[in-house]
Amino acid sequence: MSTLTRVVPAGFDVERIREDFPVLKQSIHGKPLVYLDSAATAQKPNAVIDAIRRFHEVDCANIHRGVHELSQRSTAAYEETRAKAKKFLNARTKNELIFVRGATEGINLVASSWGRGNVKPGDEIVISALEHHSNIVPWQMLCEDKGAKLRVIPMNDRGELLLEEYEKLLGPRTRMVAVTHVSNALGTINPVGRIVEMAHRAGALTLIDGAQAAPHMKIDVQALDADFYTFSGHKVFGPTGIGILYGKTRLLNAMPPYQGGGDMIKTVTFEKTTYADLPYKFEAGTPNIAGGIGLGAALDYVNSIGLDTIAAYEHELLVYGTEALGEIPGLRIVGTAKEKAAVLSFVIDGIHPHDIGTVLDRQGIAVRTGHHCAQPVMDRFRVPATTRASLAFYNTFAEIDALTAGLQKVKEIFS
Ligand code: PMP
Description:
Layout: H1 14-18, E1 27-28, E2 31-32, E3 34-35, H2 46-59, H3 69-89, E4 97-100, H4 103-118, E5 124-128, H5 137-146, E6 149-153, H6 163-169, E7 174-180, H7 192-201, E8 205-209, H8 221-224, E9 228-232, E10 243-247, H9 249-254, E11 265-268, E12 273-275, H10 289-305, H11 307-326, E13 331-333, E14 343-348, H12 353-362, E15 365-366, E16 368-370, H13 375-380, E17 386-390, H14 397-414
Parallel strand pairs: 3-15, 5-6, 5-7, 7-8, 8-9
Antiparallel strand pairs: 1-2, 4-10, 9-10, 11-12, 13-14, 14-17, 16-17
Helix pairs in contact: 2-10, 3-10, 4-5, 11-14, 12-14
The protein binds 4'-deoxy-4'-aminopyridoxal-5'-phosphate.
């Protein structure tokens, strides 16, 4: 057992919390599962599993259109999540929260719907060197379509964005600044408040990709003054296929619908269709009702622990893990920002990440290996891939010890 310091916030009982996550109670290849891949998708507590089950067993009906009891119950439960998301992000009104499939769809919605009427040839969209592909490709597609230019905020060797370079990129042609709140590949927490303020000073709008922030820290879209903010349900301990896009009312009202279909209309004739008010204008078709209800249960669950407590505990895990991995000869952590979420991305001299991942898996340890949908980040650090251990509040110091022991084994096998 490691002699490194283990600090646990007062009142935080990780063993009690782990009881809420049935998936964690299993063995993989005869070893207890050590799940260190929460940045890819987080595990689900019983509260979420039960809410989805209850919907299908008791309330199942389509929403918004039915006068019968089941439809009313389903609608109320689904819309209740919108109210929870409003509180979770501290939006002004429920109408500023649009249900989407996830962060990817949230970004595509803005790039497509806002981009259609607001980007002209010669305009510029600013993203950062830290982005996930889902916050690169939609903007690239928009730029190609409109003859606009994509500009990229560079980063330093720790994986921190260079704000003085960002300042130079801003100008009268900048229409949108789209950056991630937390990097999935490196864990860097970006100073998004500052980034938004600088964009606004230049007259540009902002979109914050909160996919990796929502599970780890309190978010306040009003304090950030973000114009758009999006996150995925499945990374915040809810189900897949559901997420939230926040947008300021004024901006959402001025944007055309993203998709056409049922539920997003007021009236339809063959000559003309009028659109529904917010938020339904952006919600064509039968949505992921069960997913929406599951997401509500997930937000309640996270709130019951408290994001400040979660952030404090995960920070201790990160400090402990950084020290523990730092003691392994030949291992280099990629991404050493001062402000960092609980992500440990690393390479080991002479051993391919896929080999590391495979040997760890045989010991029951689930990590992710590859480019993490952030190929430009890998290029910047001149590595083809990394091994990434990403932590959540259900992880333990003992699991980090298991990772360290697993990596020693990897080294024995490949040295
Ligand atoms: N942005 C970041 C930073 C991410 O980590 C991810 C998921 N890995 C996404 C966006 C896309 O999320 P989703 O696949 O859930 O739409």
